[in-house]
């Protein structure tokens, strides 16, 4: 049922950007006010990414007003900036379904709207994608088609962004890059790029004068394209000398404009119209404030990146009472890391822009000289960790599972080949819920399993997480991967003695005679409940094994299972192709065991967004799905 829509004088009349472009420019500030109110109202009741979208309201309106979208293409980076974009492009009345099962997708997706030109969930891909689209438009003869990349929210620190810039500087194109500089990603932005952007100043008036002079020189036949490139390089050098600053973008032959106030919609619109038809790659640098227009979000952008439900009038966050509930896995990780670091002075922490999300901030608070936020740069985080490990330190490198995909080569080339003592902690493993397919951490078991020299483990509960972390920091363990899910564990009494776990050793959680169930990680707790029900309903005896380590496998335990059982059920919260179930099948085949093996996990498709419990049911790895599989197996 559609929610009752709040009455907005202008916004309710905008069903597409065409409607927006029919308005006089003087109405744009009011459109921005109403759009910001709409985002605040909706997200107060239906949680999502709050501060980032508030920060780009004026930019969003200006872009759709100045450009002929969707023919002109806007490529968003870090798609949590794009809520205003969704509302203006035909999804206003459905926006209340954002992030809900079967509702609007959490991030821009071409499958949802022609205005969503490219998938964006991870950071730093917009320049490369937009450059490709700009080159394609030129090759098709669409000379009047504009392509705009909107990058920011900390994502300029990603290596892919610089690869795109480098290519844009040498490939003929008319790409416009908009750098949304808000000095923050989720936590505060870090690194030299942040400071550089804060200090960068180049006059818009100067650029207008240069454009006018160049136009005259072209008209008089004095200037052509080849002479223009040489003159541009000379001009950039001269300007850097006179202004006593070097502009990294113009050093790459990318025209620079700005910085411009990103909350002045009329000026933004005017500037965009002035520069959009200029030939060659261009960059417009705007300053914005994350959380703009909502006092609490302006003051604490980290908390208000995704604050959950809140009272839109008072700004009070609506926080559920968690008294007596188990802790979040990331909380256990953060507190255990501090505990281990007190005991082992070689331990350091590394995270790519997620200190609060993964609880690395706890180590940063107690031992700031031993924790490193490297910005949105996952590949660098891994290689940086490898460098420290090479010279005797012991890094715990915490990266969300789906983000670790971006550092795959670094794991192989810079850690595994050298057998370096790096602990790779994969937070948000498995199905993560409302963030959807770009964020589900379902590939890690499969993509890590093929890499030599890795130890790969997943804890059944919080005690196991602590013990695996303790084991990983023992001498000569080599590369050690620990993956665990987003959300709460199962133990309220989570603090336990730090004891070593025998590497490659699984556990028998329950003996049985008829069916063997093999699980890895916290999903074993769901299987435990299903097994108890199945035994009562089906009057059968079911054994339950916690594999614990995907690599090395507990071959002794698997030999016992292969000899004893003719029916085996494997359960994992990862992809079936190449995952834990595949490893069990390979072992059974290699050792001439011939049981009937049923595998439960993620099928060969991308899973949509929605509450984790609903997604588990969708994938048949919830209690009901496991019970159904056991029922079918008993009938064989």
From TrEMBL:
**What keywords are annotated for this sequence in UniProt?**
Isoprene biosynthesis, Magnesium, Metal-binding, Thiamine biosynthesis, Thiamine pyrophosphate, Transferase
Binding, thiamine diphosphate: 80, 121-123, 154-155, 182, 294, 378
For this chain, the family text in UniProt reads:
Belongs to the transketolase family. DXPS subfamily.
The record's remark on the cofactor is: Binds 1 thiamine pyrophosphate per subunit.
Record protein name field? 1-deoxy-D-xylulose-5-phosphate synthase
Q: Which reaction does it catalyse?
A: D-glyceraldehyde 3-phosphate + pyruvate + H(+) = 1-deoxy-D-xylulose 5-phosphate + CO2
Q: Does the keyword Magnesium apply?
A: yes
**EC number assigned by the record:** 2.2.1.7
Q: What does this protein do?
A: Catalyzes the acyloin condensation reaction between C atoms 2 and 3 of pyruvate and glyceraldehyde 3-phosphate to yield 1-deoxy-D-xylulose-5-phosphate (DXP).
Q: Which cofactors does this gene product need?
A: thiamine diphosphate; Mg(2+)
Outline the subunit composition: Homodimer.
Q: Which SUPFAM superfamilies match?
A: Thiamin diphosphate-binding fold (THDP-binding), TK C-terminal domain-like
Q: Which GO terms describe its molecular function?
A: 1-deoxy-D-xylulose-5-phosphate synthase activity; magnesium ion binding; thiamine pyrophosphate binding
Gene Ontology CC terms, in alphabetical order: cytosol
Class of the enzyme per the UniProt entry, highest EC level: transferase
The keyword DNA repair appears for this protein: no
